[in-house]
Hints:
By secondary structure, the protein is mainly beta.
Amino acid sequence: MRPIAGHRWHIDCFRCNTCATLLESDANLLLLGDSSLVCNNCTYSCSHCVNKIEDLAILTGNQAYCAHCFTCRNSERKIENLRYTRTSQGISA
């Protein structure tokens, strides 16, 4: 069993949810809110800065944001409490 963040996987189930690659216990990966794993090769790119997200990924529909870029389009302040509205013009707190 592989324990990560309070979750456990059988060794054969410790795979990337996107490409199904078997992961090592020291692999660079994202643990999504639904407890699925994403390897470094399949990780999301931020919809705002376009960099690969290597830490906290905030998913809003088909878009992903790094924690630094998840800001209100009006005030440009970081959205801390994850209460927001997504519109065609961007994210608002």
